[in-house]
Q: What sequence folds into this?
């Protein structure tokens, strides 16, 4: 059975470019961010990788609405290299067998410089080896002429080392010594919109027309505590969203997608979600009154999926052929589907458990709540007894181990060591917007509501 009981037919539509909307966002956010040292908008709590499938030009046209959203982002972490034009730049791709020491020798650093740079690098981010193909950028300060008119020796001013596809490590030498920072690689960010009318199934038809599966999962997570997505969504309901697509040149197939604002109309009632950062890189979704839509727990341990068996005090067991309690919820999913920890906590047990659970994980979230994830095919790397996990972290993969007739996840929730129904349990909201941030939130909210209202349904 689908998590959305009815099937939804969606069309991702893109409205025309709106220069006035871009200007308003740029101007207002610039004022607010200059006035307040806070990054109030746009981060990535629910960043999902796309499968790279192209969007149908006829049925799902999501065009670039803002050129680059990056220019509208808070600039709390500018590049540490502020005077690149005055420095000599050398780009280097690491060859097999090269080390930092050898490279410093090659570029003429004296013994004292080598010691200073190597010490700082090892202190802030120990680098045991350089990998062939890894990119490095050296910035040298041009020598100042001496009183005799002869040029002095240039010195290493800054160094950048590629950590992975997303991050760059930077060291800059200044009056306070060598300063270390870690920053994201530059990327292209496009602002897009989509809208749809419920007719069949959001998961199936959304995928068929090219709407990214990650965006569908984000919508399910965002509104999961507001309405029962399993029972309440029906034909005629509608949704709209504003989202961003982030990619790097030449790697568009690895684009990531993030919902920035959403509207869901269910049985005539409107629900809204606005993404807002209360501090740099840490944000969440809020309703129009500034109340968090999130809870300390995710509602589901899997991304958008279907429920095959609910919590019940008496259920006919398909293997044992007897009526017995079913103290959890079974989520039907393909073998190997990632399983998420529904909240942060510590792993109490990870391994094979007798009694039908098969391979399972048990997580203690606080003094009150515990969760279990059973019939797993395997555990995620690094997950074991005593390990701390974060909300949404992948801890295992769907399987059919133990007493199971097919691939699915058996999920249990305990409160004070007693079973509770995970689908009918209300958790308190995490937080709400503080008064000091309310003006910034309200202005960001109005900008997104304007854009949602201007996005037509198909």
A:
């Amino acid at each position: 059975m689908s998590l959305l009981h009815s099937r939804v037919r969606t069309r991702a539509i893109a409205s025309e470019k709106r220069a006035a909307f871009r200007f308003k966002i740029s101007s207002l956010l610039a004022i607010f961010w200059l006035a307040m040292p806070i990054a109030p908008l746009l981060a990535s709590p629910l960043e999902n990788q796309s499968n790279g499938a192209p969007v149908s030009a006829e049925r799902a046209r999501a065009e670039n609405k803002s050129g680059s959203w990056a220019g509208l982002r808070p600039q709390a972490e500018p590049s540490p290299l502020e005077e690149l034009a005055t420095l000599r730049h050398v780009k280097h791709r690491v060859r097999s067998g090269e080390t930092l020491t050898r490279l410093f020798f090659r570029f003429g650093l004296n013994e004292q410089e080598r010691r200073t740079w190597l010490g700082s690098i090892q202190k802030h981010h120990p680098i045991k080896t350089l990998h062939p193909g890894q990119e490095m950028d050296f910035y040298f300060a041009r020598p100042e002429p001496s009183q005799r008119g002869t040029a002095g020796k240039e010195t290493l001013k800054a160094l950048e080392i590629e950590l992975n596809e997303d991050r760059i490590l930077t060291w800059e030498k200044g009056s306070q010594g060598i300063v270390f920072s870690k920053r994201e690689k530059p990327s292209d960010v496009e602002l897009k919109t989509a809208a749809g009318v419920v007719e069949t199934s959001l998961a199936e038809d959304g995928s068929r027309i090219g709407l990214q599966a990650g965006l569908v999962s984000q919508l399910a997570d965002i509104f999961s505590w507001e309405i029962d997505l399993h029972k309440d969504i029906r034909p005629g309901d509608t949704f709209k969203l504003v989202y961003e697509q982030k990619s790097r040149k030449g790697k568009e197939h690895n684009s990531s997608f993030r919902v920035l604002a959403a509207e869901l109309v269910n049985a005539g009632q409107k629900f809204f979600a606005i993404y807002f950062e209360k501090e740099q890189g840490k944000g969440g979704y809020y309703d129009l009154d500034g109340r968090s839509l999130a809870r300390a727990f995710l509602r589901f341990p899997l991304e958008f999926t279907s429920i095959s068996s609910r919590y019940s005090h008496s259920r006919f067991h398909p293997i044992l052929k007897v009526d017995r309690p079913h103290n959890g919820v079974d989520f039907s999913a393909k073998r190997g589907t990632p399983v998420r920890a529904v909240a942060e906590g510590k792993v109490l047990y990870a391994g094979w458990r007798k009694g039908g659970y098969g391979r399972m994980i048990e997580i203690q979230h606080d003094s009150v709540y515990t969760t279990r994830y059973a019939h797993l095919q395997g555990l995620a790397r690094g997950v074991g007894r005593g390990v701390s996990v974060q909300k949404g972290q992948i801890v295992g993969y769907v399987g059919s181990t133990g007493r199971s007739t097919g691939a699915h996840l058996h999920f249990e929730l305990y409160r004070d060591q007693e079973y509770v129904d995970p689908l009918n349990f209300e958790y308190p909201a995490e937080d709400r917007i503080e008064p000091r941030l309310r003006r910034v939130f309200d202005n960001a909210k109005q900008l997104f509501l304007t854009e949602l209202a201007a996005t037509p349904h198909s």
